[in-house]
Amino acid sequence: MTPTPPYADPVHATEEPHPPTTRVVLADDSLLLREGLARLFAEAGYDVVDTYSDADSLIRALDATRPDLAVLDIRMPPTFRDEGVRAGIVIKRTHPRVGVLLLSQYAEPEYAADLLGTGAHGVGYLVKDRIASLDELRDAVERITTGGTVIDEAIVRDLIARRHDPLTSLTAREVDILTLMAEGRANRAIAASLFLSVATVEKHTTSIFAKLGLEDTGTTHRRVLAVLTWLDQST
């Protein structure tokens, strides 16, 4: 495939060396959205290596492009159903070090569950219109490329709403914390978001896992997978 033009200014040889930039490839069947996303990621400071109109082309080029992150629309040719999800699962199986970020116009919890159900590290699902700032985008990319999980709040709340009955034992505050936990946030970030102390969040977290019969492994990513797995199995 013909490489796309660079989206950021080249680094001059006379400048001081910088740490390696996160390499990004992305696939979206809409040319306008594809180019817009490429410029957004470039503006956030990432090296957009190449863009594709379908997921299969992105996968075939992985060995050549060597990305740190693959950004995928969910509905692409040929069926416009779940091509991005299936491509993400393939990428995590064949290139596990590559982070996968699903971007969609809609919050579709079943697709998030499909990707998370693989047990893969370094995955995320965000709704395009809910990315409010470059800092928010950078935070998501950082968490995914370091092995974490990022799930849009709307998707998490939908999962909880669909499976409300088993959660009746949780308090309103515990549901708030569970939602942020399932988004991939650590206790300190949850405390800052809810204006609580870290000790209070830890107390609520212990209570949540006790009520749901889940073992707290002490690892944020494992906690997210445990919570979402439990939610998925409780339908």
Notes on the protein architecture:
With 235 residues, the protein is of the alpha/beta class. The chain has two domains: 23-151, Response regulator (Rossmann fold), CATH 3.40.50.2300; 156-233, Orthogonal Bundle (Arc Repressor Mutant, subunit A). The chain has helices spanning 31-43, 55-60, 62-65, 83-94, 109-116, 134-145, 153-162, 172-182, 187-194, 198-212, 220-233, and strands at 23-27, 47-52, 69-73, 99-104, 123-127, 149-151. The protein has a six-stranded parallel β-sheet, with helices on both faces. Helix 8 (172-182) crosses helix 10 (198-212). The longest helix is centred in the C-terminal third of the chain and has 15 residues, at 198-212. The protein is globular. The N and C termini lie far apart (43 Å). 37% of the residues are buried.
Summarize the structure.
The chain has 235 residues and is of the alpha/beta class.
Using brief descriptors, characterize the structure shown.
235 residues; alpha/beta; Rossmann fold; Arc Repressor Mutant, subunit A; 2 domains; 6-stranded parallel sheet; 11 helices; 6 strands; 13% strand
